[in-house]
Task: structure prediction
Amino acid sequence: MALLLENLSVTYGSRKVVQDLWLEAPNGCCTGFLGHNGAGKTTAMRAALGLVRPSSGRVLVDGFDALARNREARARTGALIEVCRFQESLGGYDNLVELGRLAGMDRGTARAEASRRIEQVGLGHAADRPVENYSQGMRQRLGLAQALLGSPTTLLLDEPTNGLDPEGIQDVRNLVRELVERENRAVLLSSHLLAELAGVCDRVAVLREGRLLVQGETAALLAGGAARFRVEVEDAARARSELERIELRVPGDPAAKVFSLDLGAQPTALVSQSLARAGLLEFHREAHDLTAFYRRASAGELPPPTERTPAPLREPSERRAPKGPLARMVGYEHRRLVRAGLPLLLLVPALVGAVSIWRRSARAKSLAGEVDAGTLATTTDVTAFEALGHALAAGLPLVALIVLGVSSQLVSAEHARGTLRNVLLRPVERVHVALGKALVAAGAALVSYLVLLATAAGLAAHWFDFTDVSEILPNGTRFAIVGAEELWPEMRSALFGAVWPLLAYASLGLCVGALVRQGAAALGVALALMLGLDLSRAFVREGGIDAWLPSAYLPSPLGDSSAVRSFAMLSEGVTNAPFLHATTEVAVPLAWCVVALGLATWSLVRRAVP
Result:
């Protein structure tokens, strides 16, 4: 059995959307999944794919537990659930390449697979066109193509013909039959178009209000309805009484005036005469088709499914889940952000730092000129240490702001756009998704910081010297205040100490994005959190509690108590401005990282993804 749902239940609040569902989708077979709107079909499929956490029951793929071995299940399963979302600025082909690489293919294999699938669904003419320009039908075809990536053994297709023209619907029908007959795939296909399913499905399962009414081979189920008649009467109670008199039973609602009736061995004339006493309005043989069967099943006129024995678990005979899920997630996220223009954004703090050094250079020349002119008695010579410290003080708050904002969008924006589902349908655990995004956020923070540091250090060395801090007297004599040998270790400590609060802000942004599901709202909450942490230092400083805030370890225009400020003041010759939080500068930011990443991972692992 390729796919087996064993007593699966899904609960939203106090309402059971799916109740004790036992559904089979064997290899080499297309199983039609029928039910009215809100019957629970889509929820059951999402639970089978791990997008929704079931409240009870099991999902077995090729005989092993999909919850315990999620990556193996995802490597064997392809899905198109409702409307499929993509990266809008990319073409259809490039979207498939990215999803193929996330699924474990190398670049060449992913490109070949993307080309094959996009031609298979009839989108070859629009392969390079941005998805934002696709029609609904084209998006649906692309959604089918992503479901076929990697040749999964099981396909879950939820209303795959939505938005397609008649030609497209026929193409989907032909493709499904080809996958079943030639490639021995298992297909679970839900649709409201019963006529479409009748010509495609080998098996049928009917769901009503979350409960399975009946399932079995289509031919056998339809054959059971060959001798049934549709009846409408004026008096429901009298009709049932008359039918019981001739030993016929009407299943379903006893008050229903319209029902389906199996005549058994009774002659048609005798039944019609008996019903005439109850005010017979309509009496004709039902069509031998899936629509009639669905109506009977929905009315409760078919025997309920029999109890099943739980299937034994087994190890997969062939491991299909590729290695290195975390590395693949990092690569996918990195490429996505690079295309979004993140590198240019990360350069902004370096530009601010460069402007700070240029202004420092202009000020130093102005002060030196005043000393030479005799209008200023003395001034402190500007060194590369001082220029570097002030550049970092100007650029680091911007690094933290950018990293916080970007990391807040890594989960929330993808959730809002609907592209998070595509990621979770690949063979990667949700923990890998959370950690991959965290590593990318941390990498963005470090890259922006290193670019700022390299730019500031280079320009500082170009305009100034890494030498002693000296007082310039009117006669040109220099009086050393702080030696360079004292500044070097202070500088290294300040540079190293700035890393940890940046990582803390990256983690906080990711945490906010995982908890808040809309991109704009997540960005607003993240910025408010940063401002709140910065302002709160003023209220808790007297009790020494400010050492527990990550904002205490980064420069800030609202009040600076960081190691960078202490170093910058020392490089100006102020020797009584020590860094007060040296003992906690690593432990506190790392604690914030651990807590924030733990919350982000917990939220992403447990959240339902539409």
Notes: Residues 35 and 41 are 7 Å apart (CA to CA). The chain has three domains: 3-215, 227-287, 325-606.
